[in-house]
Design a protein that fits this description.
Rossmann fold, binds magnesium ion, alpha/beta, 5 strands, binds adenosine-5'-triphosphate
């Protein structure tokens, strides 16, 4: 568990295939939360967008996990695509309510690299979805969080 002076909620922003989950799992967080894990738990498949109970249930459980982890003082990462400000804002609010600092990590990975990684995955998203996300991406502003960094996840 993190010490009181270093309570940080980390929010990833990035296209499908940019490597958010890969990074979140090996970066040493106490807790890594994402909607896809809840899709799997609820509906048995990470790619199902809207199953029994609907997205309302999905988001409620996801948010409950985050609140619980923040209450416990854990060092948390939320590794969804979080491409829109309206996705990020409630996460920032939850963090503030719990007395956390907020760090946004923007995965600055070229669309072509995301496309190739997506093709190579066992569970690719549709190419059209990737293109649509790239079009709609709202880059994080510095004032959205205490710290906004760009991570060029290309090796
Ligand atoms: N730096 C890297 N070099 C090479 N491959 C990588 C790198 N980072 C991630 N990958 C690979 O790219 C694929 C997609 O990564 P990952 O699942 O982390 O993407 P994501 O951003 O979480 O996507 P989604 O938004 O769909 O959940 C995986 O197969 C992963 O192993
Ligand atoms: Mg992921």
């Amino acid at each position: 568990m993190a010490g009181a002076e270093e309570k940080i909620l980390t929010i990833t922003v990035g296209l499908p295939g940019s490597g958010k989950t890969w990074w979140a799992r090996q970066a040493g967080f106490d807790r890594a939360v994402c909607l896809d894990d809840w899709r799997e738990k609820l509906w048995g498949d990470r790619s199902i967008q809207d199953g029994p109970g609907g997205t309302g249930l999905l988001i409620a459980l996801h948010n409950m996990e985050i609140r619980e982890a923040l209450k416990n003082g854990e060092n948390v990462v939320v590794h969804n695509t979080n491409i829109l400000k309206k996705h990020r804002r409630p996460l920032v609010e939850m963090a503030r309510e719990a007395g956390y600092q907020v760090k946004i990590v923007y995965f600055e990975v070229p669309l072509e690299v995301c496309r190739q990684r997506n093709r190579d995955r066992p569970d690719p998203v549709a190419e059209a979805v990737l293109d649509d996300f790239a079009r709609r991406m709202e880059l994080p502003d510095p004032e959205e969080a205490d710290c906004v960094i760009r991570y060029s996840n290309i090796v």
